[in-house]
């Protein structure tokens, strides 16, 4: 599955890592719901780090679509709140 990290490029994440990413996404949603900026920053950083640690970077000349898009690490809590769907940032 192709994941775009805003400002950092696209990454090919193995399907078997989706459950782990969803757990991190759930923690991020909980931090947003609580309005806890510190926990939000930590959760977002852990989610982005997990994508990068478990994926291969997609070549810059790849023109295919992303399966989902994650915000950059400089995105605010309010900006991420606006991006959330009923399933969080990561569908599944």
Walk me through this protein's architecture:
This protein has about 90 residues and is an alpha+beta fold. It has one domain (about 1-85). It is built from three helices and four strands, in the order ββααββα. A four-stranded mixed sheet has the order 3-2-1-4, with helices on one face. The chain starts with a strand and ends in a 9-residue tail after the last helix. The model has no long low-confidence stretch (mean pLDDT about 90).
Q: Specify Rg, calculated over alpha carbons.
A: 13 Å
Helix content: 40-55%
Terminus-to-terminus distance: 12 Å
- How many domains? The number is 1
Spell the H/E element sequence.
EEHHEEH
The average pLDDT value, as a whole number, equals 91
Question: How many extended strands?
Answer: 4
Structural class: alpha+beta
Ranges with pLDDT <50 over ≥5 residues?
Answer: none
Q: How many alpha or pi helices? A: 3
Largest sheet: number of strands, sense, barrel closure: 4 strands, mixed
Shape: globular
- Spatial sequence of strands, sheet with the most strands: 3-2-1-4
The quaternary state of the protein chains shown equals: single chain
Beta strand %: 5-15%
């Amino acid at each position: 599955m192709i994941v775009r990290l805003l400002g950092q490029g696209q990454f090919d994440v193995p399907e078997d890592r989706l459950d782990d990413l969803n757990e991190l996404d759930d923690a991020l949603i909980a931090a947003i719901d609580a309005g806890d900026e510190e926990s939000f920053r930590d959760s977002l950083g852990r989610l982005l780090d997990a994508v990068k640690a478990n994926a291969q970077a997609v070549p810059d000349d790849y023109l295919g679509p992303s399966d989902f898009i994650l915000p950059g690490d400089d995105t605010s809590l309010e900006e991420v709140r606006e991006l959330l769907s009923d399933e969080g940032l990561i569908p599944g």
